[in-house]
Design goal:
Blueprint lengths: L1 H30 L4 H7 L7 E2 L1 E2 L2 E2 L6 E3 L5 E3 L7 E7 L7 H14 L6 E7 L7 H10 L7 E4 L3 H11 L4 E3 L7 E3 L2 E5 L5 E3 L11 E2 L17 H12 L2
Parallel strand pairs: 6-7, 7-8
Antiparallel strand pairs: 1-12, 2-3, 4-5, 6-11, 9-10, 11-12, 11-13
Length: 241
Amino acid sequence: MRNKYTYVWVSLVILVFGIIFIPKIIERIKTGTITQHDRMNLSENDEKLGFIYLNNEERKVPNFAFLNQDSLLITQKDYEGKVYIVEFFFTTCPTICPVMNSNLVEIQEEFRDFDDFGVASFTINPEYDTPKVLKEYAEKYSINDMDWHLMTGDRKEIYDLANIGFNIFAAENSGVPGGFEHSGLFALVDKNGFLRSRTDDFGNPIIYYRGTISESQGENTEGEKQEITILKEDIKKLLSE
């Protein structure tokens, strides 16, 4: 008899819970008032990318002004409202640059239909890489998205942008192939000009994305994994914000 009454009371509690709380949950979904914590629990894919901090401040792309492959003056304002990738390269690079830009061309094709996506490529050999040279390079690699600018300008400004503004290493070195060395990393920037990235297994931002290994290659001889796949995933996340 006790089990029968217990069953009745449990059923009654479940019924009352459904009457009171389920309509409220449905209403929160309709009105968009579910909290971020709720959204994170709904799906891991909803997790937002983290910001990159310097001196406890969210890092933002510094101001810049350079000529692109069409001899047009391009500044950070031309990228406002766009998600974009930043790279530092040079056209005569015999090692990692061809791989980097082939990866970026692949990304260009995947996001070609998005007006709010772009790429910012800065040469670290501006004396040689004139707008004309950059134009020829763009044609060689099928770089033709109107929001992909290959830029050249004052050497010091470019190196300050790389090493200080983005903290992406770039330097002249006569002892390496091509005479210049750089990290081969891609930075990802959101529509408001802030640097963003996913976090690692320990909850720390990865900060940059490895651009020197293709998806088809998978990993290099040192066992480093390609990060083009996760870069594509994270671009999609920022485009949807």
